[in-house]
Specification:
246 residues
């Protein structure tokens, strides 16, 4: 049987931390499916992306300059302004406090999406666990913001709609809609990244000259598009959960 190929960074993490992770998971009552490889490849990819973001932020902070800004600073200033404009348009008053969440989500997802284009690397978002984790974070955050804005009873009334006469219909509909938002966010991103990677691999094996370049370009475009969707939809959900009825 062919030997299963693992992501080199995840393999490195398992070599150094696998025993500790297996022990901790077993003590918590969740023993890993593979005790010899408890850190999956997609988790290794997520950790690598987080490290890249942290290292990039530290480097950027040390290189900040008003008189002579570098290319990375220019790029991040454009991204920050784009994120601020997006939340201002979608959320309105008080939107700037959501910039760190929306911006970090977009940056994390676009790097995860593109990472697999580099040889020997993986695309973490091609595993459903990664988009689902991000979607759960968004779900918890916008509902928390709704509770903070309206209070428990106020938020429940908010979910019942503007007319109490139809609350018996609106409330379960809103609950189901909220759950489906979480599934929609995760499945959309996962399916696009998974299918894009499969198509690229298939055509690279069949016609390893020009066609793969086309699919790589499409993969990059789709990576940015899906990251944008994962920024605009959470901003919309926050706007809906914190909106004041008049």
């Amino acid at each position: 049987m062919p030997v299963e190929q693992h992501f080199w960074f995840a393999k490195l993490l398992n070599d150094f931390l696998g025993g500790l992770v297996t022990t901790l998971m077993s003590m918590a009552g969740f023993p890993p499916a593979n005790p010899h490889y408890p850190i999956p490849d997609y988790v290794g990819g997520e950790i690598l992306v987080l490290l890249l973001i942290v290292i990039g932020a530290i480097f950027l902070r040390r290189q900040l300059s008003v008189e002579n800004p570098g290319k990375l600073q220019h790029a991040m200033e454009i991204f920050l302004e784009f994120t601020q404009n997006l939340v201002d348009e979608m959320i309105g008053h008080g939107a700037r406090r959501y910039v760190p969440l929306i911006g970090t989500l977009g940056l994390f997802i676009v790097i995860c999406n593109i990472l697999g284009l580099i040889p020997t690397f993986v695309t973490p978002t091609a595993s459903i666990q990664v988009p689902l984790g991000c979607a759960v974070l968004v779900f918890i955050h916008y509902n928390f913001q709704g509770l903070r804005q309206h209070g428990i009873l106020g938020y429940l009334r908010h979910l019942c709609g503007p007319m109490m006469g139809i609350a018996i219909i609106m409330f379960p509909t809103e609950i189901l809609s909220n759950v489906l938002r979480m599934l929609s966010l995760s499945v959309r991103l996962w399916a696009n990244m998974l299918v894009g990677g499969i198509l690229e691999g298939v055509f690279t094996g069949l016609i390893p000259i020009a066609i793969p370049a086309i699919f790589m370009a499409l993969h990059i475009f789709e990576s940015f598009l899906q990251a944008y969707v994962f920024m605009i939809l959470p901003a919309l959900y926050i706007s809906l959960s914190t909106a004041e009825e008049h």
